[in-house]
Amino acid sequence: MAVEQTFFMIKPNGVSRGLVGEIVGRVERRGLKILGLKMMDVSEELAEAHYEEHRDKPFFGELVSFITSGPVVAMAVEGESAVSVIRTMMGATNPVDAAPGTIRGDFATLMGENVVHGSDAVESGRRELELYFTPEELGSALVG
Ligand code: DAT
Ligand code: MG
To answer: Which candidate, 34, 44, 7, places its Cα nearest to that of 124?
Structure first.
């Protein structure tokens, strides 16, 4: 049990479908703290750096073109076990398998358009927070 920080993002289809308030509201109501939040465009360079681990996968091109297709909402989130709490709230990667009550289980059916991203570990969260936010934007909030 430990307070953690994680990177959470509403993907372009979540923004274009008007789900920002719904999804941010779920994070707030769960009791997690939002340390930073911004709507932004994702460049091809940022998308490729973010999804570096998937570079050799057949879906990499689609992933990059989807995530750069419109503005996203990026968040720095903090709370007790924040990494796994956010992952559980997101639901399974393939929304077909995502439980009702999860974000993907309530708002998505397609793997390639699964509405949200959340870091899978504290270390990747740190890396992703530093990719998406400047030190000035997070101020002294970022620990570790
Ligand atoms: P997650 O987003 O749950 O962490 P991941 O890191 O394995 O899942 O994959 C990153 C994203 O890539 C995922 O949100 C959707 C896409 N993706 C993963 N596997 C895929 C597949 N087999 N076909 C198409 N898109 C896929
Ligand atoms: Mg992942």
So the answer is: 7
pLDDT of residue 142: 72
54 an active-site residue? no
Homologous superfamily in CATH for domain 3-119: Nucleoside diphosphate kinase-like domain (3.30.70.141)
- Taking the C-alpha atoms of residue 24 and residue 142, their distance in angstroms, rounded to an integer, is 20
% of the chain surpassing 70 pLDDT = 99
Alpha carbon nearest to ligand 1 atom 16, residue: 112
Q: Kindly indicate the confidence band of residue 144, based on its pLDDT and cuts at 50, 70 and 90.
A: low
Which protein residues are within 6 Å of ligand 1, measured from CB? 54, 59, 63, 93, 111-112, 114, 117, 120
Domain boundaries defined on the chain: 3-119
For ligand 2, the distance from its centroid to the CA atom of residue 134, given in whole angstroms, is 22
pTM over 0.85: yes
